[in-house]
Amino acid sequence: MTSQALSETPNSIAPAEAAFFGALAGDWWNPRGSSAMLHRITPVRSAFIRDQAAAHFGVSGRSRRPLAGLAALDIGCGAGLMAEPLARMGAAVTAIDAAPENIAVASAHAAAQGLSIDYQCQSVESLAATGARFDLITVLEVIEHVERRDAFLQAITSLLAPGGLLVMSTPNRTPASWAVLIAGAEWIARTIPRGAHQWQRFMTPAELEEALVHAGLVVGIVTGLSWRPGPGFVIGQDTSLDYFIAATKGRGPPAG
Hints:
Blueprint: H1 3-8, H2 15-22, H3 36-57, E1 71-75, H4 83-88, E2 92-97, H5 100-113, E3 118-121, H6 124-128, E4 134-140, H7 149-159, E5 160-171, H8 175-188, H9 205-214, E6 218-228, E7 232-236, E8 242-248
Parallel strand pairs: 1-2, 1-4, 2-3, 4-5
Antiparallel strand pairs: 5-8, 6-7, 6-8
């Protein structure tokens, strides 16, 4: 889908946000560049998603390909930092992003790695309109960048297959997140591109949980993602900086 088509379809894409991150496309895969923090978080994200999916779908998290047989969708995929681990874990991966520059870089990188990932420049709303369904959907550090959040989440609910699993992560709206992510990472350390975040658009866990329930999903675990000197990013009870939230879609009443 072209950028023009995206702009003509009612959707939750914030054009300025898409343009901002699209301009960074060429540096996404540089572990010391503008996406340095994402590279540090990716192993933690991958382990969390693997463990949640293994528990939800009843497979072994120790398997080399624990997501084999699952159709996965990565929303707001950027240049593929999470889509590629999902594919390596065995999922059949579709990944979408609003910036065509990101899709081009992601496609080229996956091809160089010998990975088959269906990358599309598309909104969640337009993909949902096709009737596509996925067992696992990941939405990582995305919802703080979209417009029309209720419509965004409704489209995700439509895309999630009955019995499917949604895993999201997003910064919390706290003084700690402002100090670490904006003042520290953007302004001082420069491990996140300056201007990448608008603190007032961050959602608290309670706000996101309420929005997910309103969209028709059942919220399960809420887990914090924090930073500690030495180990770096860790998963635990501290949600003041960033957090994961997992939700499921009921299978509905039996037929007949």
